[in-house]
Amino acid sequence: MKKLLERFDILSDAIIAIIMTILVLEIEAPTNSTELFNFFKEISLFLVSFMLLINIWYRRTKIVLRTEITKLESLLFDVIAHALMSLFPLAVKTLVAYEDEWLSVLFFGLLNMLVITLINMIPVIEMGHNWEKGQLSGYIHQFFRRRVWLTILFNLAAIAIAYFLGHYGTYFYLILPFADFLANYHKDRQIKDVLKDESDFRSILAEKLGLN
């Protein structure tokens, strides 16, 4: 399994690189001034998609580095996540070309939510039932499990906001990848500092999860 995962990590980087390349190639150069609006729209969507992919790559990398993947289910979830990720160029193209903006945002949003959820499920699957209540592993398991549900609820709420606020909601939704990336980076820095003291980490997780 270890060798297989190492090979898949290489494939993962290649898939993301190819997706980014396709996103760039999908941008059509303007031929006159009337096409400038769509041109800048495509560039902005590319930047959003780029940040979204970087965010997914960053989150997956952190999970893989911190989690010893031993179960086939984890690898399967990872593979499905990459398969769905490959649809991002199509989702971005839909945002540009499809007449019904709401449906295109829904497609883009659900795709993003599914990919992130599948990746977040990896540590939950790996821990499974191999943890004891009150132990550090138990707190970590509950932390990641709650994170999965919060991610789903957050993305559904963002999609709903995009629907009810129209164009403004769409712009709000599209800037979320930037905020999400910064939030994940900040959380990882905090976890890195806290992990130096396991007892402190346990107490903080217990407080966050309301387990005190």
Automatic annotation (TrEMBL):
What is a single cellular component term in the Gene Ontology annotation? membrane
For the keyword Protease, the answer is no
Q: Could you tell me which Pfam families the record lists for this protein?
A: TMEM175
Question: What UniProt keywords are attached to this protein's entry?
Answer: Ion channel, Ion transport, Membrane, Potassium, Potassium channel, Potassium transport, Transmembrane, Transmembrane helix, Transport
Where in the cell? Membrane
Q: Where are the transmembrane segments?
A: 7-27, 39-58, 79-98, 104-127, 148-165
Annotated membrane topology = Multi-pass membrane protein
Q: Which GO terms describe its molecular function?
A: potassium channel activity; proton channel activity
**Keyword set includes Membrane:** yes
Q: List the signal peptide residues.
A: none
User: Known catalysed reaction(s)?
Assistant: K(+)(in) = K(+)(out)
- Please give the family membership noted in the entry: Belongs to the TMEM175 family.
Its recorded name reads: Uncharacterized membrane protein
